[in-house]
Amino acid sequence: MKNPVAYQNKDIISKVFGESIRNKSFRAYGMDIPEIVEILPTNLPAVEANEMRLDNLFRLKDGTIVIVDYESTYSYADKIKYLNYVARTTKGMD
Predict the structure, then answer these.
(1) Which of 56, 69, 71, 84 has its CA 20 to 30 A from that of 38?
(2) Which residues sit opposite 59 in a β-bridge?
(3) What are the CB-based long-range contacts (under 8 Å, 24+) for 48-56?
(4) Which residue has better confidence, 41 or 70?
């Protein structure tokens, strides 16, 4: 009997590939960005039980979605909040 191919074969190859390109760049792919200096963990565990409410959510005539949120101050944490709004809105549009 032949050795079966692991169901997660693409994930395994991606991890091996990631480890092999440390201190290299993506220039071979036409991307002129700095070299990779660190391979970061790819597991993104999340257990959340919170309700996020944004100020306004609109669908435009062309079908695009616009998120409007008003802030009296602006911080780095707001950027994370906005990314979560985009992710949850996109997920909810399935």
Answers:
(1) 84
(2) 65
(3) 52/81, 52/84, 52/85, 52/88, 54/85
(4) 70
